[in-house]
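Long-time lurker, first post. I've been practising inverse folding by hand and with some scripts of my own, and I keep getting stuck on stretches where the structure tokens seem ambiguous. Below is the full token string for one chain I'm working on. Before anyone asks, I'm not after the true native sequence, just a reasonable design that respects the backbone. If someone could post their per-position residues I'd love to compare against what I wrote down in my notebook.
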């Protein structure tokens, strides 16, 4: 199914991003300077690609249908599971941003720790979250939603993608991903 394949491909991109984030954190632990511009790029990618572009489709289209049509199981799985994790992800990124701003003003070790906590916490959360969606949530959606709902999901996701393409969202953030990987995943 088009939408699920697209969103699994986006998960692959987010996992490539997470690898770069983790490597940047390891670099700091090994004594490298904090590259504040790169961490700002990471915040942008997490907010605009992983959250707005990817979670946007989940929240506004697929998960909306699952909550509406799959009864108590759908509601629990989405509202008390996936959506809460999206919120925790946002919280980690806000924490990362706050520590980064403090560090830029006054480069103390405690703020460096905050940067690592925010970034690595996000990386860990999203890795587990993506695994659950790939292995459980998406499969359950494909198996349980009625064919006409799945068709409607595909059609709305196509529109979402088209609009994002016009705004060059994919091009911009996959470019940022490429830059981050060249710098942090060169081996
Ligand atoms: Fe999600
Ligand atoms: Fe996802």
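-- Answer (accepted) --
I ran through it position by position. Result:
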């Amino acid at each position: 199914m088009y939408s699920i394949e697209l969103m699994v491909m986006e998960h692959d991109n987010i996992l490539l991003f997470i690898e770069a984030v983790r490597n940047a954190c390891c670099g700091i632990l090994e004594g490298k300077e904090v590259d504040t511009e790169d961490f700002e790029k990471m915040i942008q990618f997490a907010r605009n690609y992983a959250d707005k572009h990817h979670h946007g489709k989940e929240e506004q289209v697929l998960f909306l249908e699952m909550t509406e049509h799959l009864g108590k199981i759908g509601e629990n799985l989405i509202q008390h599971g996936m959506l809460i994790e999206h919120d925790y992800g946002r919280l980690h990124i806000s924490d990362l941003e706050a520590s980064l701003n403090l560090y830029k003003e006054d480069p103390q070790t405690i703020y460096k720790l905050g940067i690592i906590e925010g970034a690595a916490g996000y990386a860990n959360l999203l890795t587990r979250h993506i695994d659950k969606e790939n292995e459980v949530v998406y499969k359950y959606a494909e198996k349980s939603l009625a064919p006409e709902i799945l068709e409607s999901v595909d059609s709305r996701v196509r529109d979402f993608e088209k609009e994002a393409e016009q705004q060059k969202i994919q091009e911009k953030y996959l470019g940022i991903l490429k830059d981050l990987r060249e710098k942090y995943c060169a081996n």
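A couple of notes from the structure itself: The CA atoms of residues 105 and 114 lie 14 Å apart. The pocket of fe (ii) ion (ligand 1) is lined by residues 55, 58, 82, 86, 129, 133 (CB under 6 Å). Happy to go over any region you disagree with.
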